[in-house]
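It is worth pausing here to work through a concrete case rather than discussing structure prediction in the abstract. The textbook approach is simple: state the sequence, then state the predicted structure, then interpret. We follow exactly that order.
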Amino acid sequence: MRYLLVALTMLLFPAALSHAQVSISINVPVYPNLVLVPGYPVYYYPAARSNYFFYYIKARRS
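Step two, the predicted structure:
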């Protein structure tokens, strides 16, 4: 009975009806002038109208 209920639900409510779309657009120059935040491995772009940060962590080699 449970499998029949699951099969009917899948037939009546197909996954194609649930469609989501997310779009993020960040418009910056090709090479923005990033400024280092003192004491942190973080750079920011002061000319941006929103928060634009770049985190740089150097990989350790053993």
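Step three, interpretation. Strands lie at 35-36, 42-44, 53-55. The two ends are 59 Å apart (CA to CA).
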